[in-house]
């Protein structure tokens, strides 16, 4: 049980901000006046996260915010039901904010608290869509101009269990077009290609040497992904829909993936820089972003803009993903 040994680290407030297009920010304040920011976004399920954060607020107000692990263990283990996208996204929002606070309190970046840097800069890719094929080359060219050397795109649009082979050759042509610009490419199957066609598409893409294929099947299919991994030489990335170390375990045990990939997302209308005071921390140079040097997360949130935008957005319906249907009326994976 937490005891309030560090008065100025006591959690005095936890606020949640719903922000367009589909973010959920968490602001944690201590009685010493330190503020940390976290992100609890689970796009399409905003209200569920807000509900989970109500319980987190009720539990952890007054706790010593320095005890990050203790808080994580209590949030995760003290209730009978645990894990999953809703509870873990909510907990992540609090957890990130507490690390931000601790870094600010000690005046160091979070990476300093985790053992120090192992690289000075991080290679990044830019998202270019792929759901609407015609926009792919345009998007890739723009990313190249912005300084990226690599992009990620969706492989296909909606697919039937067994669809026309044309869908596969079109996907290959789009990837080839982007590679022709001199860019490295990651191809996100988005779990929307079913096993029969995922095998084919992975094989067809192999000669184009994607950096990786992502979620080649649904994250409920570790055995099938392990089978696929043995069939192709292309690295397999997955993890966006896994939430804990134990969720990754079947993939690691089966040597099914090459890249453990935490959640990332793209946005329209508001982007990575929108709510950050100084976007230069994310400046892309020759395909890399420098490790942030500021304390905590190394970014400063534009709190006034967050509050103003969240107030305007409060009456709007939260973002929902598209629901796709085939010509036969059956549901397609999005
Ligand atoms: Mg993905």
From TrEMBL:
Cofactor(s) this protein requires: Mg(2+)
GO biological process assignments: amino acid catabolic process
PROSITE patterns named in the record: MR_MLE_1, MR_MLE_2
Gene Ontology molecular function, alphabetical: lyase activity
Keywords, ordered alphabetically: Lyase
Mandelate racemase/muconate lactonizing enzyme C-terminal domain mapped to chain residues: 133-235
SUPFAM superfamilies the record matches: Enolase C-terminal domain-like, Enolase N-terminal domain-like
InterPro entries reported in the protein's UniProt record: DgoD-like (IPR034593), Enolase-like_C_sf (IPR036849), Enolase-like_N (IPR029017), Enolase_C-like (IPR029065), Mandel_Rmase/mucon_lact_enz_CS (IPR018110), Mandelate_racemase_C (IPR013342), Mandelate_racemase_N_dom (IPR013341)
Record-linked Pfam families: MR_MLE_C, MR_MLE_N
Superkingdom of source: Eukaryota
Protein name according to UniProt: Mandelate racemase/muconate lactonizing enzyme C-terminal domain-containing protein
Organism: Hermanssonia centrifuga
